[in-house]
Design brief:
Largest sheet: 5 strands, parallel
Shape: globular
Bound molecules: phosphoric acid mono(formamide)ester
Strand content: 5-15%
Number of helices: 10
């Protein structure tokens, strides 16, 4: 690891080069193995604010765990108790955190484009008090870059050669930032992606995937099946759960024999995936994803906050 980072902020997968993605994944796997014995790098003296406008278990705690493992100090920014509730502008909030001494804000928001807009405010002559990294921990329905990175790490652990693998994505693609970031990332590594969803979860603006009529078609030659959470909080209409379960639920019977099962979590048990499958040996990859989230986020934090910021890519 060396050289100054070209990047100051993690906005989305598009903002990362293919080489940077590979470097993060390799570093995550290196740290995972180090973690079993040797010491990871130190981010002692760095301060990170966790700004979560939406609920989270995996992303919040794996970032917190990653920061703690790297020796950084981590602070919860309680959005409802902050001066945002008095109408403070988000750029001003981040800038004041920079002035206080923070080095990073880890941000989860439902507001599409908030992170990019905050960074771009600098083009209007507003400047951050000092360097502060904005890291996307899930934004709107479009981007969840660290989830895609941890999924990539998980896939790399399972398969020697990624080029030509077949991935089937099932479910609420329209509202899924996980699907969008994964499609952007995995396409770059030669993974062929099929999508299957009821009409109300389709998103025709998603490019570089093949839309399938049914699960049978989507599962042909599948090496990876990725189920998505039905995002009830983003859906106004009533979902036909019975119909969804009948046509799109993943079970021990319909999961292709040689395919691995992934799900970003949280899972709506017995809707997207049956409990029997989740609790079986084949359901374990989902927990491995959560486990890899810590190492992928450690690698990201090293890249954006490390003294020798960036990798030699
Ligand atoms: N996968 C994911 O983002 O989970 P959380 O919402 O629990 O962070």
């Amino acid at each position: 690891m060396c050289a100054a980072a070209k990047l100051e902020h993690l906005i989305d997968i598009k903002s990362l080069s293919t080489e940077e993605i590979s470097a993060i994944a390799e570093r995550a796997l290196e740290i995972k193995n180090m973690d079993r014995g040797a010491k990871p790098l130190s981010l002692a003296g760095k301060h990170a604010a966790m700004i979560f406008f939406e609920n989270s278990t995996r992303t919040y705690f794996s970032f917190e765990m990653a920061l703690n493992k790297l020796g950084a100090s981590v602070y919860n920014f309680e959005t409802s108790k902050s001066s945002l509730s008095k109408g403070e502008d988000f750029f001003d909030t981040v800038n004041n955190l920079a002035a206080i001494g923070f080095d990073a804000c880890i941000i989860r928001t439902s507001e599409e484009g908030l992170i990019k807009r905050t960074i771009e405010e600098q083009k209007n002559g507003r400047k951050f008090f000092k360097k502060i990294a904005l890291i996307n921990a899930g934004e709107g329905t479009s981007a969840h870059p660290t989830q895609a990175l941890l999924d990539f790490v998980t896939i790399k652990e399972k398969f020697k050669n990624l080029n030509g693998l077949n991935l089937a994505i099932v479910g609420d693609i329209r509202h899924s930032r996980v699907a969008k970031s994964n499609i952007e990332l995995l396409n770059r590594f030669g993974i062929k992606i099929k999508c299957v969803a009821p009409s109300y979860f389709k998103d025709e603006s998603v490019k570089n995937v093949e839309w399938c009529e049914n699960m049978e078609k989507a599962f042909e030659n599948a090496d990876i099946v990725m189920a998505l959470r039905i995002q009830k909080e983003r859906i106004q209409d009533i979902i036909e759960f019975e119909d969804y379960i009948k046509n799109y639920q993943i079970t021990e019977e319909n999961l292709p024999k040689n395919a691995i099962l992934m799900h970003p979590g949280p899972v709506n048990r017995d809707i997207e995936v049956t409990s029997a499958l989740l609790d079986s040996k084949r359901g374990k990859t989902i927990l491995e994803q959560a486990n890899n989230g810590v190492f992928a986020r450690m690698a990201v934090l090293e890249m954006f906050l490390g003294e020798n910021r960036g990798y030699n890519v």
